[in-house]
Amino acid sequence: MSEEKTTVYFVRHARPDYSCEDDRNMPLTAEGKADAVIVAEVLKNVSFDMCISSPYVRTQATIKPTCDQKKLTLRTDERLKERVRGKLGNQGDELQRRRWLDFDFHEPQGESMNSLQKRNISALTNILSRYTGQTILFSTHGAALSAILNFYDDTFGYQNFKRLEMFTPYILKVTFGMNQNLIDQSEILIIDKSEGLA
């Protein structure tokens, strides 16, 4: 008997409006909204059994055109929210590097990578158990997705995260086996915004 596989399409959100200081309610820019339509176009031939998202506005808005097109109910899970940002000052890049070197490190009032990984994996494990053999649309964040990928492959580190951070939106198709092991992964969509961030 062949192994029953579960397929998850991880979608990293499109470009948000960083001028909004409320991380949870940060909307997409006009460009981000246009890119969300591209996400729907790329996924138009995929049949999804369920859809889950971080509760943040930008992740939900990125997959809303896909959900509308396919008449999917968009569920959210608080465990899938982005890493809680603390006081970064002007040391953002250095603190990022330290968090990847030491998963228990966090800036004042911030969240460690270990904490981020544990809650995201807890949610993903529940989803994989409940929807075994199905196809799932999963809208997420850069650090959260990186933490998930590191859980399955500890060679996924800081440089991989920095690469992924440039892609907004980004779609990664991942196949999981019956025992929730990662079998295969392939990049379905990369929209590289690194030039705009320079």
From TrEMBL:
GO molecular function: phosphatase activity
Binding annotation for substrate: 58
GO CC annotation terms, alphabetical: cytoplasm
Pfam families (UniProt xref): His_Phos_1
Protein name: Histidine phosphatase family protein
Organism of derivation: Leuconostoc pseudomesenteroides
